[in-house]
């Protein structure tokens, strides 16, 4: 079972959008996938057309010591071969994780049943910034996919992921793909920032993918609770190219 975090310390880079497209795309390639939504805004759930009225139990119930809840009770089906583990009370989850002495073990304990349920991939949508939840996710996963908005501030800040991993004493080899996102190929600034991104990671075994172009239809799809594979063929093709790289990297 491959475990992937979609993470960037900066908000607004399209992280949840990428997490949803990767998850649905992998399921369409024949893999059984679960998307674990640990972003407090619940965007992954919403982009799949799933809201709070569609579930009763969440990841929070798994760590709430007042409840005796099974992992299966918190999982809902989102698409064929794609399930979702939603969240609630994200600040309380983060506070609870601060009380844990072994942050490197907590997710292995809480999610240990996933492999027995037959999943090929676990994709975790992380919130922005450094949190105790994200600490635990980085200890849990084998691979990190980092979307980076192709604009100056985001590109120049992307190296902070190495500092984060170093602080947790984790290997930088966990970084599997960098996805340039929201790319506007019409502007010189975007082209320069893309080139800077490729140059920055040039020694990292070609981990920078082709960019995902800025398209209104990607935003529209999310607002309608659909993925690009259900809404826009051109956008879907871009993500399939990313998926091909991802499967080769983590396979």
From TrEMBL:
InterPro entries listed in its UniProt record: AAA_dom (IPR025669), DNA_Partitioning_ATPase (IPR050678), P-loop_NTPase (IPR027417)
Annotated AAA domain residues: 1-169
Pfam family, one: AAA_31
CDD domains (alphabetical): ParAB_family (cd02042)
Protein name listed in UniProt: Chromosome partitioning protein
């Amino acid at each position: 079972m491959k475990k992937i975090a979609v993470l960037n310390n900066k908000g607004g880079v399209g992280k949840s959008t990428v997490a949803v497209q990767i998850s649905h795309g992998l399921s369409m390639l024949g893999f059984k996938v679960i998307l674990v939504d640990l972003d407090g805004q619940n965007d992954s759930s919403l982009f799949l057309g799933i809201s709070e009225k569609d579930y009763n139990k969440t990841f929070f119930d798994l760590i709430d010591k007042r409840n005796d809840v099974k992992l299966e009770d918190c999982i809902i089906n989102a698409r064929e071969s794609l399930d979702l583990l939603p969240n609630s009370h994200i600040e309380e989850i983060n506070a609870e994780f601060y009380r844990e002495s072994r942050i490197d073990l907590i997710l292995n304990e809480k999610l240990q049943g996933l492999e027995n349920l037959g999943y090929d991939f676990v994709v975790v949508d992380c919130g922005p910034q450094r949190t105790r939840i994200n600490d635990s996710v980085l200890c849990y996963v084998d691979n990190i996919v980092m979307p980076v908005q192709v604009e100056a501030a985001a590109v120049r800040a992307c190296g902070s992921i190495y500092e984060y991993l170093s602080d947790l004493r984790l290997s930088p080899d966990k970084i599997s793909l960098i996805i340039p996102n929201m790319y506007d190929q019409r502007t010189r600034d975007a082209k320069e920032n893309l080139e800077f991104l490729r140059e920055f990671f040039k020694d990292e075994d070609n981990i920078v993918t082709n960019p995902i172009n800025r398209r209104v239809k990607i935003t529209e799809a999310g607002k309608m609770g659909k993925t690009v594979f259900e809404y826009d063929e051109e956008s879907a093709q871009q993500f399939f190219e990313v998926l091909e790289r991802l499967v080769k990297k983590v396979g």
